[in-house]
Design brief:
Length: 177
């Protein structure tokens, strides 16, 4: 797993624990010569993980929709840039380019990316998993909801076929090994 897609917040106004964990993960990616595939924004956890990864030697691939470019929100850390028309194209390219996806804390855009990966997997378009990095229990409510989907038989297959959960940094690294 050399290319890791990271889905995460572009907000600069979130608790510092999330920033610290994103920086720790980015540094690990650089130290282990991984490629970061992400949305290319210069804001929030996106810029944090990219900066830490770049400082430690990672290659950075940004998948940038035109709206980000129009708003001047593109990171200057990118080694490779994919320009996309919209968010749907962005998700498809990130999924195509990455070996595995990691969901750091994020908002509606991150949820969209997570469910895009999982839905494609359930239909058989790919066999890639999303890893929820559950910093401070951030994903607990979503994970509980997903468990309920299985219990109520709205999921045709066990959802752990398409996802994994890391509650600590050590667990995250072990899943990526």
């Amino acid at each position: 797993m050399n290319k890791i897609a990271v889905f995460c917040s572009a907000s600069d106004y979130i608790d510092s624990v999330y920033t610290e964990k994103a920086a720790q993960f980015g540094a690990w990616m650089g130290e282990n010569r991984k490629w970061l595939v992400y949305g290319g924004s210069n804001r929030g956890l996106m810029e944090t993980v990219a900066r830490a990864a770049k400082e430690k030697g990672a290659m950075i691939m940004g998948v940038v929709p035109t709206k980000l470019e129009e708003r001047g929100m593109v990171s200057d850390l990118l080694d490779v840039t994919f320009h996309t028309v919209n968010l749907s194209d962005r998700k498809d390219i990130m999924l195509q380019e990455a070996d595995v996806m990691v969901a750091l804390p994020g908002g509606v855009g991150t949820l969209d990316e997570i469910f895009h990966v999982m839905a494609g997997g359930t239909i058989g378009y790919h066999d890639k998993k999303i890893i929820f990095y559950n910093v401070n229990g951030f994903w607990d409510d979503i994970l509980h909801f997903l468990k309920g989907l299985e219990e109520q038989r709205f999921a045709h297959h066990p959802l752990n076929n398409y996802m994994q959960v890391a509650n600590t940094f050590e667990e995250l690294i072990q899943l990526l090994a």
